[in-house]
Specification:
alpha/beta; 6-stranded parallel sheet; 13 strands; 17% strand; globular
């Protein structure tokens, strides 16, 4: 029998895919967008009537602190409070991010890898995701936290883990390690499976099984016509400048902050065995198929 689900951020990039997948699996879905309700000031109690599980995807991608405070943190805080006020609070599946892991992580990143214990040194997006997870852990709500990597789909084909782009040039800052991506379809299936699967308080990495090297990712990008040029510049050469600028704090662009630079560029690998075991989730898209589909759907 299908569940009664509420999906926040239902009009967004991931939200549309999650709503479609949930309905395809026979669930009744109540989608919430900012056009439907102001998540900061609105009365949310009526939206939760009869809901068995909330998939909370709403949040900002912006690196702006004020935007994150309004659209991610305040919205999440009010949603948690509304759920706590229900006679029988629904479960919550939260969209977090692999950005929560420590910038000092090395080797293979699993759910046992420490999360960032110095949020102030990270960008606004990572800080917001860390704060969201913290709110949920102390809320008393039954919950599952999913930590997707970069979601590959139409309009989302560049990966911040490569380096910055300038005009027709990509500045490639690392060659080792894996690019932590997951296809939009595989990610949406993981969220629906998490809503269907009891299991409280766990956090799970959501990444594709076929995680490309940076060289393979750049080769796929170049087949699209961009970048025309690739300029190798090892991030370790930039690190001394980042350290010199560190006293300026948040006024410094992301990749010129030591912890942000290291978090994005360190050559690590990832493990998704816990999500596969807990959810029965098997990523179906290989990288080349997912990239080609994203390119075709964006055309």
């Amino acid at each position: 029998m299908g569940l009664n689900l509420l999906v926040t951020g239902a009009g967004g990039f991931l939200g549309r895919a999650v709503v479609a997948e949930a309905r395809a699996q026979g669930h009744a879905v109540r989608g919430v967008t900012r056009a439907d309700v102001d998540l900061v000031t609105g009365d949310l109690s009526g939206l939760l009537d009869g809901i068995e599980c909330v998939i909370h995807l709403a949040g900002a991608l912006s690196g702006d602190c004020a935007v994150q405070a309004r659209d991610t943190l305040t919205a999440t805080r009010r949603f948690i409070a509304a759920m706590q006020a229900q006679p029988l609070p629904p479960r919550l599946v939260l969209a977090s991010s692999i950005a929560v892991y420590s910038a000092d992580a090395s080797g293979v990143v699993t759910e046992a890898t420490p999360i960032e214990d110095r949020p102030e040194r990270r960008d606004a997006y990572a800080r917001a995701k860390l704060a969201q997870e913290g709110m949920l852990r102390v809320s008393g709500l039954r919950h599952t936290i999913l930590r997707p990597g970069a979601i590959l789909g139409p309009g989302r084909m560049m990966a911040a883990h490569l380096g910055p782009g300038m005009g027709g040039t990509l500045i490639l800052m690392e060659r080792g390690g894996e690019v932590p991506i997951v296809s939009l379809n595989d990610c949406a299936r993981a969220f629906v499976l998490a809503a269907e699967t009891p299991g409280e308080g766990r956090a799970l990495n959501i990444l594709g099984a076929d995680r490309p090297t940076r060289a393979r990712y750049v080769a796929a990008l170049r087949r699209t016509g961009w970048p025309r040029h690739v300029l190798p510049l090892n991030w370790r050469m930039v690190a001394p400048l980042a350290w010199l600028l560190s006293p300026l704090g948040a006024r410094v662009p992301g990749l010129l902050r030591p912890a942000v630079l290291r978090a994005r560029m360190r050559p690590v690998r990832y493990d998704i065995a816990a999500a596969q075991l807990a959810l029965g989730w098997v990523p179906q898209d290989d990288f080349d198929t997912a990239f080609a589909r994203a390119q075709e759907e964006a055309a």
